[in-house]
Amino acid sequence: MEHETRGRQGEEPPPPADSGDDRSAEQDIDRELLDWWMLVMQGFHATHDSLASELTDRFNLGPGAAEVLVRLLNAPKYRMPMTRLAHETRKSSGGFTKVGDRLCNAGLTRRTTCQDDRRLIYLELTDQGKDMARAISRLVTQIMRARVLTPLGRDGFADLADAMRELRDANDDLGK
Hints:
Strand 2 and strand 3 form a beta hairpin. The protein has five helices and three strands; from the N terminus they run H-H-E-H-H-E-E-H. Helix content is 60%, strand content 7%. It has a three-stranded antiparallel sheet. It is globular and about 60 Å long. The chain starts with 30 loop residues before the first helix and ends in a 5-residue tail after the last helix. By secondary structure, it is mainly alpha-helical. Helix 2 (63-73) crosses helix 5 (127-171) and helix 3 packs across helix 4 (93-105).
């Protein structure tokens, strides 16, 4: 049975199992599960790429830098330890240092040390960074309404967020 989940319109469907291409060696592969996963990834990337394009066009920032600013806007005292930000944004410490450097050089953040533990470095929003983070948050809210809430509805988006939280918690120590 052909599912709607198979590829995009116009794409070549996979050959039938008896086409002589050794499909018998693939009997333990669940094509429906693979299709679902590929659709999840396609949906995520299409939405993410669209959002990233808007952020770049309007703010000259990539999605990683924008995410950091929004996370800091929602953090106590508008700051977070750099190691936690790197982990939450799924970047290596070296990769995150580059993002932090760019945000500091742009005057949107500054690095501060913890008074109790000088090894702990915070990334903190400047006043200019708070303004930028608020503007980004407004734009992301508009985009999410148009590109996620419209097709999924509020309940569908909430269900998606709950499902992604469950996956995060099951596969990463961040949620625990």
